[in-house]
Amino acid sequence: MQNNVTVEKILVSYDPEVQNLLPVLKKISAVFGFIGSKDAEIVAEYFGLSLAKICEVASFYDLIKTRKPANLEIKVCSSGDCALGSSAEIIQEIENYFRIKAGDEFNPKVRLEKNSCLGRCAEGPIMIVNGKVFEKVTVSSVHRILGEYV
Amino acid sequence: MNNIKIITEHWGKINPLKIEDYVSVGGYEALKEFIEKSDSEGALKEVKLSRLSGRGGAGFLTGVKWEMVSAQKGEKYFVCNLDESEPGTYKDRLIAENNPHLLLEGLVLSALTIGAKKSYIYLNGNYEKAKEVLARAILQAQERKFLGTKILSSKYSLEIEIFSGAGAYICGEETALLSSIEGNRGEPKMRPPYPTECGLFGKPTVVNNAETIASIPWIIQNGGKKYLKCATKLFVLGGSVKNMGVFEAPIATTIDEAITKLGGGMQDGKEFWFAQVGGASGGIYLEKELGGPILGSGAILVVDRTADIYDLLLSWTGFFRRESCGKCVPCREGTFRLHEIAERLVDGEIADRDKEALNDILWTLENTTFCPLGKFAATAVRNAIDKLGILK
Predict the structure, then answer these.
(1) B59-66 — which CB contacts under 8 Å span 24+ positions?
(2) Residue B307: which of B381, B240, B254, B249 has the closest Cα?
(3) I need a labelling partner for A126 at 20 to 30 A (CA). Which of B3, B44, B192, B338 fits?
(4) What CATH number does the domain located at B19-229 have?
(5) In this structure, are A12 and A52 located in the same domain?
(6) Complex ipTM, two decimals?
(7) Cα dihedral angle (B103, B108, B112, B116), rounded to 10 degrees?
């Protein structure tokens, strides 16, 4: 992240038209990791919309975060092909390793979520760590991958 | 099986980043022909003759949809649905990544036929590579005047914009998709009015799946009658088959043919149990039921005897619980409770009360939800109870 990027600077590169709202929110979330309440207020003012409307849209989409992400964000695909390819065991392995539960938000450092299909089924099981996608993950390779982050 | 390839013909043979490659294999010829004749009614006639139907899953006749919009005057939109978030389905991503110009040519032809001047490609938010490839293809097409103002020095103009989604399954439903472009939550709207009357920004809009659009250049060049005889569909094979991936085959291919001929049969040492056809929202087919056509998105998940049905059960119910948009109560609560009961079933703590509740919940999902997502959530679970006997 560049230090001099601000929400205002992102906003001026878009016209305040409704079809730009989702791209703007995505961009802010991608640059800062999430959209805080202050940011949401600035966006609301720029688009001339209510704060409620901004929060309503932002909270709907998976790729827009409304809360500060954990240091380590892990997602494991649990859809069809990946589920047959032992993604359930991979999730269990990670749960045991960090002593967390998928979907829980108690640990501020690590979060584990089940993810919907990314359309890379032939390369599954898929795991995403802090935005980086890993393919053909196995119960044993999980430790090696996570070892790079811990 | 005939071997005509309409969509996958040039996959892997041409460089998707170079427009010259596509032009050298006859690309944009259909567009040139269309511009020369300047006959959108003729194009519409061919598409109607072809009886091309929506390849996203619902299967609505494309020509009929187009006719409704082309008959109206004023501002219109054409939207390419490339949201594709059905689990196990990635055919549209491969269309965009392997031959983006085929999709663009189809999109230009489609939009001009219905008289739209602005078109959106609603792209799955996770498809980063496809986005780059398409963005580059759009620039190249603009340089060569296949796109933009005065296409090939004619009266036609079209602007194409990529709109990247933000990760929501429900945005594949056309009214939810349009809500999403308009900067709203991606929730489905009441129909009627259909998008063909009141769609994007209140204007008549056609929403077509990417695969449908990619078939258009071939239809314009070879005629609708010929397409009717050799219509193809992309199938996505996954699970315990030898060859996983996307295959193009005649639309009448049966599930059995797809598994044995396209997928090369079962992997060694694995015994067929059932196939799930149409992604997470699709039904379950046992060995004796494989003679039928492949419905829905064209995804086939082949499951062998060693698979853990409970993993799949949690996968289905968890998916729909996550992806229910929350607009209507039957779906929001139904998918949530369905997942809870599935968890209890997997943990071996299911009570008789749960089994009764399960029937009520499934009925409610099947019959009372606002959009088809609720029905989809019930399909596989209902099938698993009836055909696989998971409650026994």
Answers:
(1) B62/B208, B62/B212, B65/B196, B65/B206, B65/B208, B66/B110, B66/B113, B66/B114, B66/B206
(2) B240
(3) B338
(4) 3.40.50.11540
(5) yes
(6) 0.94
(7) 90
Whether residue A88 lies inside any domain: the answer is yes
Query: Is B290 in a helix, a strand, or coil?
Result: coil
Q: Per residue in B273-332, pLDDT tens?
A: 999 999 999 999 999 999 999 988 999 999 999 999 999 999 999 999 999 999 999 999
CATH of domain B231-304: 3.10.20.600
A interface with B, Cβ–Cβ < 8 A, is 18-23, 25-26, 47, 56-57, 60-64, 78-81, 83-84, 87-88, 114, 116-122
What span, in angstroms and rounded, lies between the C-alpha atoms of A139 and B314?
Answer: 19
Q: For A19, phi and psi rounded to 5 degrees? A: -70, -10
Residue in chain A closest to B93 (alpha carbons) equals A119
DSSP A86: T
What is chain B's percent helix, strand, coil content, to nearest 5?
50, 15, 35
Query: Is domain B309-388 classified as CATH 1.20.1440.230?
Result: yes
Chain A residues within an 8 Å CB radius of B181: 19, 22
CB A70 within 8 A of CB A130: no
Q: How many domains is chain A partitioned into structurally?
A: 2
Q: What are phi and psi of B119, to 5 degrees?
A: -135, 145
User: What residues of A are in contact with residue B88 (Cβ under 8 Å)?
Assistant: 79-81, 117, 121
Q: At B53, give phi and psi (nearest 5°).
A: -120, 160
Domain with CATH 3.10.20.600 in chain B: 231-304
Question: Does residue A34 sit in the same domain as residue A93?
Answer: no
Could you report the per-residue pLDDT of B22-61, keeping only the tens digit for each?
A: 999 999 999 999 999 988 999 999 999 999 999 987 889 9
Verdict on whether the full-model pTM lies above 0.90: yes
Residue of A nearest to B281 (CA): A80
Q: Which residues form the domain of A14?
A: 7-58
For residue B139, the distance in angstroms to the closest alpha carbon of chain A comes to: 20
Least Cα separation, residue B316 to chain A (angstroms): 7
Q: B162 and chain A: CB distance < 8 Å anywhere? A: no
Question: Considering only CA atoms, which of B150, B89, B76, B154 is closest in space to residue B117?
Answer: B76
Residues A54 and A103 in one domain: no
